[in-house]
Amino acid sequence: MARLAQLALLLFWPALALALSPGQLQGPVAVLKVVDGDTVELAGLGRVRLIGIDAPESSPNERARLQARQSGQEVQEVVRLGLLAKRFTEGLLRGKQVWLELDVQERDRYGRVLAYLYLEDPRGDWSYGGKRYRQVNLEILRAGWADPLTIPPNVRYAELYLEASREARAKGRGMWGNPPP
Hints:
Elements: H1 2-20, E1 25-36, E2 39-42, E3 46-50, E4 53-54, H2 62-71, H3 75-93, E5 97-101, E6 113-120, E7 126-128, E8 131-135, H4 136-142, E9 147-148, H5 158-170
Parallel strand pairs: 3-6
Antiparallel strand pairs: 1-2, 1-5, 2-3, 4-9, 5-6, 6-8, 7-8
Helix pairs in contact: 2-3
Protein name: Nuclease
InterPro entries: SNase_OB-fold_sf, Staphylococal_nuclease_OB-fold
Pfam family, one: SNase
Protein backbone atom coordinates (compact mmCIF):
# COMPACT_ATOMS: atom_id res chain seq x y z
CA MET A 1 0.00 0.00 0.00
CA ALA A 2 2.84 2.40 0.85
CA ARG A 3 4.45 1.62 -2.49
CA LEU A 4 1.21 2.50 -4.30
CA ALA A 5 1.04 5.82 -2.44
CA GLN A 6 4.65 6.59 -3.42
CA LEU A 7 3.91 5.80 -7.06
CA ALA A 8 0.82 8.02 -7.03
CA LEU A 9 2.83 10.86 -5.50
CA LEU A 10 5.51 10.55 -8.19
CA LEU A 11 2.94 10.49 -10.98
CA PHE A 12 0.95 13.46 -9.74
CA TRP A 13 3.70 15.55 -8.17
CA PRO A 14 3.98 18.02 -11.10
CA ALA A 15 0.24 18.71 -10.97
CA LEU A 16 0.33 19.12 -7.18
CA ALA A 17 3.29 21.47 -7.36
CA LEU A 18 1.54 23.59 -9.97
CA ALA A 19 -1.61 23.81 -7.92
CA LEU A 20 0.40 25.14 -4.97
CA SER A 21 2.57 27.77 -6.65
CA PRO A 22 0.95 30.09 -9.21
CA GLY A 23 3.26 32.87 -10.42
CA GLN A 24 6.47 30.87 -9.89
CA LEU A 25 8.37 28.67 -12.31
CA GLN A 26 7.62 24.98 -11.84
CA GLY A 27 9.46 22.19 -13.59
CA PRO A 28 11.11 20.69 -15.36
CA VAL A 29 8.29 18.84 -17.10
CA ALA A 30 8.80 16.74 -20.26
CA VAL A 31 7.05 17.76 -23.47
CA LEU A 32 5.25 14.69 -24.79
CA LYS A 33 3.59 16.20 -27.85
CA VAL A 34 2.88 19.48 -29.60
CA VAL A 35 -0.86 19.48 -30.33
CA ASP A 36 -0.81 22.71 -32.35
CA GLY A 37 0.93 26.08 -32.34
CA ASP A 38 -0.41 27.08 -28.92
CA THR A 39 -1.19 23.80 -27.15
CA VAL A 40 1.14 21.06 -25.89
CA GLU A 41 0.87 17.84 -23.95
CA LEU A 42 3.12 17.59 -20.89
CA ALA A 43 4.04 14.61 -18.72
CA GLY A 44 1.79 14.38 -15.69
CA LEU A 45 -0.30 17.39 -16.72
CA GLY A 46 -1.99 16.50 -19.99
CA ARG A 47 -2.88 19.32 -22.35
CA VAL A 48 -1.50 22.75 -21.60
CA ARG A 49 -2.74 25.87 -23.41
CA LEU A 50 -0.18 28.65 -23.76
CA ILE A 51 -1.54 31.84 -22.19
CA GLY A 52 -1.76 35.01 -24.23
CA ILE A 53 -1.32 33.63 -27.74
CA ASP A 54 -3.61 32.29 -30.45
CA ALA A 55 -1.99 30.35 -33.30
CA PRO A 56 -3.95 29.46 -36.43
CA GLU A 57 -5.76 26.13 -36.17
CA SER A 58 -3.96 23.15 -37.70
CA SER A 59 -7.11 21.22 -38.65
CA PRO A 60 -10.27 22.35 -40.48
CA ASN A 61 -12.52 22.65 -37.43
CA GLU A 62 -15.09 25.24 -36.30
CA ARG A 63 -12.38 27.42 -34.77
CA ALA A 64 -10.48 27.40 -38.10
CA ARG A 65 -13.66 28.53 -39.86
CA LEU A 66 -14.02 31.36 -37.35
CA GLN A 67 -10.38 32.38 -37.81
CA ALA A 68 -10.91 32.33 -41.59
CA ARG A 69 -13.95 34.62 -41.33
CA GLN A 70 -12.13 37.00 -38.99
CA SER A 71 -9.01 37.19 -41.17
CA GLY A 72 -10.71 37.16 -44.57
CA GLN A 73 -8.78 34.01 -45.55
CA GLU A 74 -9.91 30.63 -46.77
CA VAL A 75 -10.08 27.83 -44.19
CA GLN A 76 -7.38 25.94 -46.12
CA GLU A 77 -5.02 28.91 -45.74
CA VAL A 78 -5.70 29.14 -42.00
CA VAL A 79 -4.96 25.41 -41.65
CA ARG A 80 -1.79 25.71 -43.75
CA LEU A 81 -0.55 28.52 -41.51
CA GLY A 82 -1.62 26.50 -38.47
CA LEU A 83 0.49 23.56 -39.58
CA LEU A 84 3.47 25.88 -40.03
CA ALA A 85 2.87 27.34 -36.56
CA LYS A 86 2.71 23.82 -35.15
CA ARG A 87 5.97 22.96 -36.92
CA PHE A 88 7.62 26.04 -35.41
CA THR A 89 6.44 25.12 -31.90
CA GLU A 90 7.61 21.53 -32.42
CA GLY A 91 11.02 22.87 -33.40
CA LEU A 92 11.20 24.76 -30.11
CA LEU A 93 9.90 21.98 -27.87
CA ARG A 94 10.46 18.52 -29.37
CA GLY A 95 12.32 16.34 -26.88
CA LYS A 96 12.67 19.18 -24.41
CA GLN A 97 11.73 19.86 -20.83
CA VAL A 98 9.90 23.04 -19.93
CA TRP A 99 9.14 25.08 -16.85
CA LEU A 100 5.67 26.50 -16.31
CA GLU A 101 4.41 29.74 -14.84
CA LEU A 102 0.74 29.99 -13.99
CA ASP A 103 -1.37 33.13 -13.82
CA VAL A 104 -4.61 33.89 -11.97
CA GLN A 105 -6.83 31.32 -13.71
CA GLU A 106 -5.10 27.93 -13.76
CA ARG A 107 -7.44 26.02 -16.13
CA ASP A 108 -9.71 26.83 -19.04
CA ARG A 109 -13.26 25.62 -19.61
CA TYR A 110 -11.89 22.51 -21.35
CA GLY A 111 -9.84 21.54 -18.29
CA ARG A 112 -6.48 22.40 -19.86
CA VAL A 113 -3.77 23.92 -17.68
CA LEU A 114 -3.15 27.54 -18.71
CA ALA A 115 0.53 28.45 -18.55
CA TYR A 116 3.47 30.45 -19.75
CA LEU A 117 6.17 27.96 -20.80
CA TYR A 118 9.90 28.47 -20.44
CA LEU A 119 12.99 26.77 -21.84
CA GLU A 120 16.25 26.91 -19.93
CA ASP A 121 18.68 28.96 -22.00
CA PRO A 122 21.85 30.70 -20.74
CA ARG A 123 21.13 33.52 -23.22
CA GLY A 124 17.46 33.83 -22.27
CA ASP A 125 15.73 37.10 -21.38
CA TRP A 126 14.22 35.78 -18.13
CA SER A 127 16.04 35.08 -14.88
CA TYR A 128 14.66 32.85 -12.14
CA GLY A 129 16.43 31.03 -9.33
CA GLY A 130 19.87 31.88 -10.69
CA LYS A 131 19.13 30.43 -14.16
CA ARG A 132 18.22 32.03 -17.49
CA TYR A 133 15.14 31.11 -19.55
CA ARG A 134 13.36 31.92 -22.80
CA GLN A 135 9.59 32.25 -22.69
CA VAL A 136 8.03 30.00 -25.35
CA ASN A 137 4.79 32.02 -25.65
CA LEU A 138 6.80 35.15 -26.44
CA GLU A 139 9.11 33.32 -28.87
CA ILE A 140 6.10 32.14 -30.89
CA LEU A 141 4.74 35.70 -31.06
CA ARG A 142 8.13 37.17 -31.98
CA ALA A 143 8.45 34.65 -34.80
CA GLY A 144 5.04 35.68 -36.16
CA TRP A 145 3.25 32.35 -35.67
CA ALA A 146 0.46 33.57 -33.38
CA ASP A 147 -1.68 36.57 -32.54
CA PRO A 148 -1.81 37.95 -29.01
CA LEU A 149 -4.92 36.77 -27.16
CA THR A 150 -5.75 38.56 -23.92
CA ILE A 151 -8.34 36.80 -21.75
CA PRO A 152 -8.69 38.28 -18.27
CA PRO A 153 -7.74 37.55 -15.60
CA ASN A 154 -4.57 36.08 -17.21
CA VAL A 155 -3.04 39.33 -18.44
CA ARG A 156 0.43 39.36 -16.85
CA TYR A 157 2.34 39.82 -20.14
CA ALA A 158 -0.40 41.31 -22.36
CA GLU A 159 1.47 44.53 -23.21
CA LEU A 160 4.70 42.66 -23.96
CA TYR A 161 2.80 40.29 -26.24
CA LEU A 162 1.12 43.14 -28.15
CA GLU A 163 4.51 44.75 -28.71
CA ALA A 164 6.07 41.47 -29.91
CA SER A 165 3.18 40.89 -32.31
CA ARG A 166 3.40 44.41 -33.75
CA GLU A 167 7.11 43.90 -34.38
CA ALA A 168 6.55 40.50 -36.06
CA ARG A 169 3.91 42.02 -38.37
CA ALA A 170 6.06 45.04 -39.19
CA LYS A 171 9.03 42.82 -40.05
CA GLY A 172 6.96 40.29 -42.03
CA ARG A 173 7.84 37.33 -39.84
CA GLY A 174 6.05 33.98 -39.84
CA MET A 175 2.46 34.18 -41.05
CA TRP A 176 2.88 37.92 -41.66
CA GLY A 177 5.44 37.32 -44.40
CA ASN A 178 5.49 34.89 -47.28
CA PRO A 179 5.60 31.52 -45.52
CA PRO A 180 6.49 28.55 -47.71
CA PRO A 181 3.61 26.52 -49.19
